[in-house]
Amino acid sequence: MRILYFTRDYTPHDFRFLAALAETDHEIYYLRLERRGHQKEDRILPSGVRQVNWSGGQKPAQNKDAPRLLISLRRVLRQVKPDVLHAGPIQTVGLLAAMSGFHPLVTMSWGSDLLHDAEKNGWYRWATRYTLKRSDVLVGDCDAVKQKAIAFSFPGERIVTFPWGVNLQRFSPGDDGGLRARFGWEDTFVLLHLRSWELIYGVDVFARAFVSASRQCPELRLFLLSSGSLAPEINRTLMQSNLIDRVHFGGQVKHAELPNYYRASDLYVSASHSDGSSVSLMEALACGLPALVSDIPGNREWVVPGEHGWQFPDGDVEALAKGILKAIDQRDVLPRLGQNCRELAEERADWPKNFEKLLEAYEIAIDRNDK
Question: Is pTM, for the whole model, over 0.85?
Protein backbone atom coordinates (compact mmCIF):
# COMPACT_ATOMS: atom_id res chain seq x y z
CA MET A 1 0.00 0.00 0.00
CA ARG A 2 1.24 3.49 -0.83
CA ILE A 3 0.18 5.97 1.87
CA LEU A 4 0.42 9.76 1.67
CA TYR A 5 0.38 11.10 5.24
CA PHE A 6 -0.64 14.77 5.08
CA THR A 7 -0.54 16.79 8.30
CA ARG A 8 -0.51 20.40 9.44
CA ASP A 9 2.92 20.57 11.11
CA TYR A 10 5.52 18.16 12.47
CA THR A 11 4.70 17.27 16.06
CA PRO A 12 5.55 14.40 18.43
CA HIS A 13 2.19 12.87 17.48
CA ASP A 14 3.13 12.94 13.80
CA PHE A 15 6.47 11.34 14.62
CA ARG A 16 4.73 8.46 16.41
CA PHE A 17 2.32 7.82 13.55
CA LEU A 18 5.05 8.02 10.94
CA ALA A 19 7.42 5.83 12.96
CA ALA A 20 4.74 3.16 13.30
CA LEU A 21 3.83 3.37 9.62
CA ALA A 22 7.51 3.14 8.66
CA GLU A 23 7.74 -0.22 10.44
CA THR A 24 5.09 -1.71 8.14
CA ASP A 25 5.65 -3.03 4.63
CA HIS A 26 3.84 -0.04 3.13
CA GLU A 27 5.39 2.90 1.24
CA ILE A 28 5.02 6.03 3.34
CA TYR A 29 5.11 9.58 1.97
CA TYR A 30 4.98 12.63 4.23
CA LEU A 31 3.49 16.00 3.33
CA ARG A 32 3.54 19.00 5.69
CA LEU A 33 1.13 21.91 5.29
CA GLU A 34 3.12 24.53 7.20
CA ARG A 35 6.06 25.29 9.43
CA ARG A 36 5.24 27.40 12.43
CA GLY A 37 7.43 29.69 14.52
CA HIS A 38 9.29 26.87 16.23
CA GLN A 39 9.99 23.22 15.54
CA LYS A 40 7.55 21.18 17.61
CA GLU A 41 9.41 17.89 17.12
CA ASP A 42 13.19 17.77 17.27
CA ARG A 43 13.57 14.19 16.01
CA ILE A 44 14.23 13.71 12.30
CA LEU A 45 11.71 11.86 10.16
CA PRO A 46 11.71 8.10 10.79
CA SER A 47 13.86 6.08 8.42
CA GLY A 48 11.96 4.97 5.35
CA VAL A 49 9.51 7.89 5.30
CA ARG A 50 9.81 9.93 2.11
CA GLN A 51 9.23 13.65 2.52
CA VAL A 52 7.47 15.23 -0.46
CA ASN A 53 8.60 18.64 -1.67
CA TRP A 54 5.76 20.94 -2.68
CA SER A 55 4.58 24.56 -2.39
CA GLY A 56 3.78 24.31 1.31
CA GLY A 57 5.57 23.26 4.46
CA GLN A 58 8.05 26.14 4.80
CA LYS A 59 6.05 28.85 6.60
CA PRO A 60 2.70 29.38 8.32
CA ALA A 61 -0.17 28.76 5.89
CA GLN A 62 -2.77 31.47 5.25
CA ASN A 63 -6.18 31.37 3.62
CA LYS A 64 -4.87 33.30 0.63
CA ASP A 65 -2.42 30.44 -0.03
CA ALA A 66 -5.20 27.91 -0.59
CA PRO A 67 -5.44 28.12 -4.43
CA ARG A 68 -1.68 27.73 -4.85
CA LEU A 69 -1.49 24.91 -2.32
CA LEU A 70 -4.43 23.09 -3.89
CA ILE A 71 -2.77 23.14 -7.32
CA SER A 72 0.45 21.85 -5.78
CA LEU A 73 -1.37 19.15 -3.80
CA ARG A 74 -3.08 17.84 -6.93
CA ARG A 75 0.32 17.71 -8.63
CA VAL A 76 1.71 15.69 -5.71
CA LEU A 77 -1.20 13.27 -5.88
CA ARG A 78 -0.59 12.70 -9.59
CA GLN A 79 3.11 12.07 -8.95
CA VAL A 80 2.86 9.87 -5.84
CA LYS A 81 -0.33 8.03 -6.87
CA PRO A 82 -1.15 6.99 -3.30
CA ASP A 83 -3.52 4.13 -2.54
CA VAL A 84 -4.90 6.20 0.33
CA LEU A 85 -4.61 9.82 1.44
CA HIS A 86 -4.44 10.34 5.22
CA ALA A 87 -5.22 13.96 6.16
CA GLY A 88 -5.91 15.94 9.31
CA PRO A 89 -6.80 18.14 11.19
CA ILE A 90 -10.22 18.57 9.62
CA GLN A 91 -10.60 22.28 8.80
CA THR A 92 -7.07 22.82 7.48
CA VAL A 93 -5.31 19.80 6.00
CA GLY A 94 -8.52 17.81 5.80
CA LEU A 95 -10.29 20.60 3.94
CA LEU A 96 -7.49 20.95 1.39
CA ALA A 97 -7.45 17.19 0.86
CA ALA A 98 -11.23 17.15 0.38
CA MET A 99 -11.00 20.00 -2.14
CA SER A 100 -8.48 17.97 -4.16
CA GLY A 101 -11.23 15.48 -4.95
CA PHE A 102 -8.93 12.53 -4.20
CA HIS A 103 -10.28 9.19 -2.96
CA PRO A 104 -9.91 7.13 -0.88
CA LEU A 105 -9.59 9.85 1.75
CA VAL A 106 -9.09 9.00 5.43
CA THR A 107 -9.57 12.15 7.49
CA MET A 108 -8.12 12.12 11.00
CA SER A 109 -9.57 14.31 13.71
CA TRP A 110 -7.07 15.73 16.17
CA GLY A 111 -9.73 16.06 18.87
CA SER A 112 -10.18 19.79 19.29
CA ASP A 113 -10.81 20.33 15.58
CA LEU A 114 -14.20 18.63 16.07
CA LEU A 115 -14.80 19.13 19.78
CA HIS A 116 -13.95 22.86 19.74
CA ASP A 117 -13.14 24.41 16.37
CA ALA A 118 -16.09 22.94 14.46
CA GLU A 119 -18.49 25.32 16.22
CA LYS A 120 -16.32 28.45 16.19
CA ASN A 121 -18.29 30.21 13.49
CA GLY A 122 -20.13 29.66 10.23
CA TRP A 123 -16.97 29.20 8.21
CA TYR A 124 -15.68 26.43 10.49
CA ARG A 125 -19.06 24.68 10.43
CA TRP A 126 -19.03 24.82 6.62
CA ALA A 127 -15.43 23.55 6.42
CA THR A 128 -16.24 20.71 8.80
CA ARG A 129 -19.32 19.60 6.85
CA TYR A 130 -17.54 19.95 3.50
CA THR A 131 -14.59 17.84 4.61
CA LEU A 132 -16.61 15.14 6.33
CA LYS A 133 -19.00 14.82 3.39
CA ARG A 134 -16.05 14.02 1.11
CA SER A 135 -14.23 11.70 3.51
CA ASP A 136 -14.43 7.95 3.07
CA VAL A 137 -13.44 7.18 6.66
CA LEU A 138 -12.98 9.34 9.75
CA VAL A 139 -10.43 8.38 12.39
CA GLY A 140 -10.98 9.71 15.92
CA ASP A 141 -9.41 9.11 19.32
CA CYS A 142 -12.47 8.98 21.59
CA ASP A 143 -16.21 8.49 21.67
CA ALA A 144 -16.77 12.24 22.13
CA VAL A 145 -15.20 12.83 18.70
CA LYS A 146 -17.31 10.07 17.18
CA GLN A 147 -20.54 11.50 18.55
CA LYS A 148 -19.64 15.00 17.33
CA ALA A 149 -18.97 13.67 13.82
CA ILE A 150 -22.30 11.85 13.84
CA ALA A 151 -23.96 15.14 14.84
CA PHE A 152 -22.43 16.56 11.64
CA SER A 153 -24.21 13.74 9.74
CA PHE A 154 -21.15 11.54 9.21
CA PRO A 155 -22.11 7.82 9.17
CA GLY A 156 -21.12 6.10 12.40
CA GLU A 157 -20.19 2.88 10.61
CA ARG A 158 -17.43 4.74 8.77
CA ILE A 159 -15.80 6.09 11.94
CA VAL A 160 -12.80 4.20 13.34
CA THR A 161 -12.14 5.11 16.97
CA PHE A 162 -9.00 4.32 18.93
CA PRO A 163 -6.92 6.18 21.55
CA TRP A 164 -3.55 7.13 20.13
CA GLY A 165 -2.01 5.39 23.10
CA VAL A 166 1.54 5.39 24.45
CA ASN A 167 4.64 3.22 24.60
CA LEU A 168 3.93 1.24 27.77
CA GLN A 169 7.57 0.19 28.08
CA ARG A 170 8.89 3.74 27.96
CA PHE A 171 6.09 5.21 30.06
CA SER A 172 5.89 3.00 33.12
CA PRO A 173 6.18 3.28 36.91
CA GLY A 174 9.73 3.37 38.15
CA ASP A 175 12.65 5.43 39.39
CA ASP A 176 12.76 9.10 38.41
CA GLY A 177 16.50 9.17 37.87
CA GLY A 178 17.02 11.43 40.88
CA LEU A 179 14.95 14.26 39.35
CA ARG A 180 12.91 15.01 42.46
CA ALA A 181 15.93 14.87 44.78
CA ARG A 182 17.75 17.26 42.49
CA PHE A 183 15.30 19.99 43.56
CA GLY A 184 15.18 18.92 47.20
CA TRP A 185 11.49 18.10 46.90
CA GLU A 186 11.53 14.67 48.57
CA ASP A 187 9.21 15.78 51.41
CA THR A 188 6.85 17.92 49.33
CA PHE A 189 3.75 17.27 47.21
CA VAL A 190 4.59 17.72 43.53
CA LEU A 191 2.16 18.60 40.73
CA LEU A 192 2.92 18.07 37.05
CA HIS A 193 1.46 20.32 34.35
CA LEU A 194 2.76 19.98 30.79
CA ARG A 195 0.00 21.21 28.51
CA SER A 196 0.80 24.08 26.11
CA TRP A 197 0.37 27.57 27.53
CA GLU A 198 -2.68 28.38 25.44
CA LEU A 199 -6.24 29.33 26.40
CA ILE A 200 -7.75 26.09 25.15
CA TYR A 201 -5.64 24.12 27.63
CA GLY A 202 -6.71 26.22 30.63
CA VAL A 203 -3.19 26.93 31.82
CA ASP A 204 -4.38 30.30 33.16
CA VAL A 205 -7.03 28.50 35.21
CA PHE A 206 -4.42 26.11 36.54
CA ALA A 207 -1.93 28.86 37.44
CA ARG A 208 -4.52 30.71 39.54
CA ALA A 209 -5.61 27.47 41.22
CA PHE A 210 -1.99 26.62 42.05
CA VAL A 211 -1.59 30.01 43.69
CA SER A 212 -4.76 29.51 45.74
CA ALA A 213 -3.80 26.01 46.86
CA SER A 214 -0.20 27.01 47.65
CA ARG A 215 -1.38 29.68 50.07
CA GLN A 216 -3.00 26.91 52.12
CA CYS A 217 -0.30 24.29 51.59
CA PRO A 218 3.31 25.54 51.75
CA GLU A 219 4.65 22.07 50.81
CA LEU A 220 3.11 22.24 47.32
CA ARG A 221 5.56 22.23 44.40
CA LEU A 222 5.15 22.30 40.63
CA PHE A 223 6.84 20.99 37.52
CA LEU A 224 5.53 23.45 34.92
CA LEU A 225 6.65 22.32 31.49
CA SER A 226 6.03 23.56 27.93
CA SER A 227 5.41 27.18 26.86
CA GLY A 228 3.07 29.24 24.72
CA SER A 229 1.43 32.57 24.03
CA LEU A 230 0.16 32.97 27.62
CA ALA A 231 3.70 32.99 29.03
CA PRO A 232 3.58 36.67 30.12
CA GLU A 233 0.31 36.13 32.00
CA ILE A 234 1.43 32.88 33.63
CA ASN A 235 4.77 34.33 34.72
CA ARG A 236 3.05 37.42 36.09
CA THR A 237 0.53 35.34 38.07
CA LEU A 238 3.27 33.28 39.72
CA MET A 239 5.68 36.16 40.30
CA GLN A 240 3.08 38.41 41.92
CA SER A 241 2.21 35.61 44.33
CA ASN A 242 5.90 35.10 45.26
CA LEU A 243 5.75 31.43 44.33
CA ILE A 244 8.54 31.28 41.78
CA ASP A 245 10.78 29.34 44.16
CA ARG A 246 8.15 26.57 44.31
CA VAL A 247 8.03 26.12 40.54
CA HIS A 248 10.41 24.47 38.11
CA PHE A 249 9.94 25.91 34.62
CA GLY A 250 11.05 22.99 32.47
CA GLY A 251 10.19 24.40 29.04
CA GLN A 252 10.08 21.97 26.11
CA VAL A 253 11.33 18.72 27.60
CA LYS A 254 12.82 16.15 25.26
CA HIS A 255 10.63 13.12 24.72
CA ALA A 256 13.22 10.78 26.25
CA GLU A 257 13.21 12.78 29.50
CA LEU A 258 9.43 12.93 29.97
CA PRO A 259 8.94 9.64 31.88
CA ASN A 260 11.10 10.88 34.77
CA TYR A 261 8.86 13.92 35.24
CA TYR A 262 5.79 11.70 35.56
CA ARG A 263 7.62 9.41 38.00
CA ALA A 264 8.89 12.35 40.08
CA SER A 265 5.38 13.78 40.55
CA ASP A 266 2.48 13.00 42.89
CA LEU A 267 -0.38 14.28 40.72
CA TYR A 268 -0.93 15.09 37.04
CA VAL A 269 -3.17 18.11 36.45
CA SER A 270 -4.92 19.30 33.29
CA ALA A 271 -7.42 22.15 33.13
CA SER A 272 -7.97 21.78 29.39
CA HIS A 273 -11.28 23.08 28.03
CA SER A 274 -11.21 20.66 25.09
CA ASP A 275 -9.55 17.28 24.65
CA GLY A 276 -10.02 13.95 22.99
CA SER A 277 -8.01 11.11 24.50
CA SER A 278 -5.13 13.26 25.74
CA VAL A 279 -1.77 11.60 25.11
CA SER A 280 -0.15 13.31 28.10
CA LEU A 281 -2.98 12.00 30.30
CA MET A 282 -2.40 8.48 28.96
CA GLU A 283 1.34 8.87 29.60
CA ALA A 284 0.58 9.84 33.20
CA LEU A 285 -1.74 6.85 33.64
CA ALA A 286 0.87 4.53 32.14
CA CYS A 287 3.42 5.80 34.68
CA GLY A 288 0.97 5.10 37.51
CA LEU A 289 0.38 8.80 38.18
CA PRO A 290 -3.14 9.73 39.37
CA ALA A 291 -4.80 12.65 37.60
CA LEU A 292 -6.89 15.68 38.43
CA VAL A 293 -8.60 16.81 35.24
CA SER A 294 -11.37 19.06 33.96
CA ASP A 295 -14.77 17.42 33.69
CA ILE A 296 -15.02 17.36 29.89
CA PRO A 297 -16.18 14.44 27.70
CA GLY A 298 -12.72 13.30 26.59
CA ASN A 299 -11.41 13.18 30.16
CA ARG A 300 -14.50 11.42 31.48
CA GLU A 301 -13.64 8.47 29.24
CA TRP A 302 -10.40 7.98 31.19
CA VAL A 303 -10.56 9.32 34.72
CA VAL A 304 -13.18 7.77 37.01
CA PRO A 305 -13.27 9.80 40.25
CA GLY A 306 -11.94 7.77 43.13
CA GLU A 307 -10.45 5.18 40.78
CA HIS A 308 -7.85 7.03 38.70
CA GLY A 309 -7.91 10.45 40.36
CA TRP A 310 -10.46 13.25 40.41
CA GLN A 311 -12.37 15.69 38.21
CA PHE A 312 -13.36 19.33 38.68
CA PRO A 313 -15.87 21.57 36.81
CA ASP A 314 -14.26 22.98 33.67
CA GLY A 315 -12.92 26.50 34.20
CA ASP A 316 -13.59 26.58 37.97
CA VAL A 317 -10.41 27.90 39.62
CA GLU A 318 -11.49 27.37 43.22
CA ALA A 319 -12.82 23.88 42.52
CA LEU A 320 -9.46 22.99 41.00
CA ALA A 321 -7.63 24.43 44.02
CA LYS A 322 -9.86 22.41 46.34
CA GLY A 323 -9.20 19.33 44.22
CA ILE A 324 -5.46 19.78 44.64
CA LEU A 325 -5.84 20.13 48.42
CA LYS A 326 -8.13 17.08 48.50
CA ALA A 327 -5.48 15.02 46.73
CA ILE A 328 -2.90 16.16 49.29
CA ASP A 329 -5.20 15.23 52.17
CA GLN A 330 -5.84 11.82 50.59
CA ARG A 331 -2.26 11.07 49.58
CA ASP A 332 -2.49 7.71 51.29
CA VAL A 333 -4.79 6.47 48.49
CA LEU A 334 -2.45 7.58 45.69
CA PRO A 335 -0.61 4.24 45.45
CA ARG A 336 -3.91 2.40 44.94
CA LEU A 337 -5.05 4.95 42.36
CA GLY A 338 -1.69 4.70 40.63
CA GLN A 339 -2.04 0.95 40.28
CA ASN A 340 -5.51 1.43 38.78
CA CYS A 341 -4.07 3.98 36.37
CA ARG A 342 -1.41 1.58 35.13
CA GLU A 343 -3.97 -1.20 34.67
CA LEU A 344 -6.22 1.11 32.66
CA ALA A 345 -3.32 2.16 30.44
CA GLU A 346 -2.38 -1.46 29.81
CA GLU A 347 -5.98 -2.23 28.89
CA ARG A 348 -6.76 0.72 26.63
CA ALA A 349 -3.65 2.80 25.84
CA ASP A 350 -1.24 0.27 24.31
CA TRP A 351 0.03 2.15 21.25
CA PRO A 352 1.27 -0.79 19.10
CA LYS A 353 -2.06 -2.56 19.57
CA ASN A 354 -4.17 0.55 18.98
CA PHE A 355 -2.17 1.54 15.90
CA GLU A 356 -3.51 -1.49 14.04
CA LYS A 357 -6.88 0.28 13.94
CA LEU A 358 -5.37 2.92 11.65
CA LEU A 359 -4.38 0.29 9.12
CA GLU A 360 -7.92 -1.10 9.34
CA ALA A 361 -9.25 2.38 8.55
CA TYR A 362 -7.11 2.51 5.42
CA GLU A 363 -8.44 -0.86 4.27
CA ILE A 364 -12.05 0.19 4.88
CA ALA A 365 -11.53 3.33 2.80
CA ILE A 366 -9.90 1.40 -0.04
CA ASP A 367 -12.62 -1.28 -0.04
CA ARG A 368 -15.30 1.40 -0.12
CA ASN A 369 -13.79 2.89 -3.29
CA ASP A 370 -13.27 -0.49 -4.96
CA LYS A 371 -17.00 -1.21 -4.90
Answer: yes
